[in-house]
Model the fold of this input.
Amino acid sequence: MNDLYIIITACLVAINCAIVGSFLVMRKMVMIGDAISHAVLPGIFFAYLLSGSTSSLPILIGAAASGIFATILIEWFTQKARLQSDASIGVSYTLLFAIGIILISKFGENADIDQQCVLYGELEYVWLWLVPIGNHFFIPQQTLILLSLTLIIITGVIIGFKGLFITTFDPNFAISTGVAIGFWHYFLMGGVSLTTVVSFESVGAILVVAFLSGPPAIAYLLTENLKKMIILSCFFGILCAIIGFYTAKLFDVSIAGAISTIIGLVFTVVFIISTQKKSKIDVISY
Amino acid sequence: MIFLQSISTLFSNDYYTFWVVAAGAGIICFAAGTVGTFSYLRKRALLGDVISHAVLPGVVISFMLTGVKDSLYFLTGATISGLISIAIVDYVQSKSKLKPDTILALTLSVFFGVGIVLLTKIQHSGNGAQSGLDSFLFGKAASMSLHDVTLFSIIAIINTICIVLFIRPFSLISFDEEYAKGIGFNVKFIKYFLAMLTVITVSIGIQSVGIVLMAALLITPASGARFLTNAIPKMIFYAGFFACISGIIGVFISSTGTSMPTGPWIVVVLSSFTLLAIFFGKEKGIFARMQTRKSNQIKINNENILKIVYKTSKEGTISVPIQDIFKESSDKSIRLTLKRLEKNNIISRVKGMIFLHENGKIAAREVIRKHRLWEIYLSKYFQLEADHLHDDAEGIEHIITPEIEKHLITLLDRPEKDPHQSEIPY
Done:
């Protein structure tokens, strides 16, 4: 049963990240996802400080807020301070992460968050906090939160698909037809913040980044149709999560690490196949 | 009080260790700042993040192979796997349609994942090695051993010397690879050499700030230095200097409290320097730019008013009722501008009439001349219709310098009339 909980949790993270990640990959913003996943630390701390509890809701809100704050900070560095965009990302997330670590190590001895937990996550122990559904059925708290997030994200993407699509692929056209680019940017960033925050609590920042970039990248090598790409990346995400889990069990190693490794392996295979295909086409066309 | 006490202990008990560690952190950070300048200039800021995550498997494998917790072995492993990660990023980028950011994120997380897998393998096999490896990952500069400090400092100094010696080729490939190739530099070698220096710097830098914050050590100093100067050697020096000072202050702060982490403090101090530079940097800082914009705006307002006064006043009189100006201009700050002009003795106001002084007249003629010359230039060289000229000239008339004006006059053969048949006042 515990294994099942872990697998389901990992798959839910995979789905969330695959959907959001597909948009990030197309918008060339994956590293912002990476930045957000690190920059949520101060938010988590302040939520903990204000609410005095480590229960999930305040922490979630705090983390999501600081995720959004991180994107605003990055924007500010690029627009107002005119720093080049990659440097803006680097400067902002490291600063927020550093502040977070300082706050936590100074005031948050009981906060149960440390640098290692942020990076590695605690997927192995997801079954420790169960909540009852009905009389006989239990489900881990994390899994429940992730499930609701998945529903939110799927609904959000279905409702906002047109807006997200148009601002991703043709921002100039979007501007000329009066689509609010800023709104969709922050709509997506809100989704990214929620996803990274909810997910990193269970799987760690590194696996979140792997899920955000890997499956969408694999899918993008196979198709250029965004809808197909999203579905394919969900598929690959789930596939890697399951294979990764059993690999971790087999070798007795970290689950998050194993899943990342499997994502890397699957990517390598698909990458080699796709480059070979391409070179064949090249030969024919000559 | 506690603070003062901690300072005094600093100089009494084991101050020797403290100063050695502080100096070591300073030197390591200096090296990171200098190398990072080129990461910044080559727009590869986030590559530092990738490298710092990618060294993990190398470190763990080197431990698995040797079974010893020796910094030199760690460094070797770290450097090798860091270089491999760069090579992979470059290769995938050249062979697929994936964008750099995706490749960076993927490489970073997969390498780190592999590292964690290996790390947990060691831990679960009961080798008890994580303590040493952990300090490598999360940066505990304050607890570095003297042996490590010496080793890392020496490497950092060698690194910095290499940067100084190769400053020209590195600058060239940062700005214009093709040109560098053209004048006979071995671009490929230079790129890999720079990459290697970066990887080595990252490997030792992790010791002081940890994996996650390593990107800051490379990129934050350069980001700040960029606001202070345009010259690369100066920029490198500023970046290194800021990083060095931050390293020392960071170690100092973390030694004052029991639960004060070193790396994060270094980064916070560093970021504060950079923010200061971003706000107060001469010429490029936010405030300096605001100042420039403001003074430009004043100049434009002045010139626009002078122009209106000159144009609306009848030949010879050079005086205009104030209401006429309000009619002509939609600018909201007319009153302010008029007051300023009067104070500078360019106009004077008498009973609702505005008189243009001699210097005002000259200035007004100058602006009108530039405006009309530009209109001629546009119609002659861009074949624009007469009704398309005005708006463009309206903006550029304030920007044309006397040199450009001279150039325009010779180029256009000192014309008498503009495309609208108005006379050009010389």
Observations:
- Chain A touches chain B through 61 residues (CB under 8 Å).
- Strands of chain A lie at 130-133, 137-140.
- Chain A is about 80% helix and 5% strand.
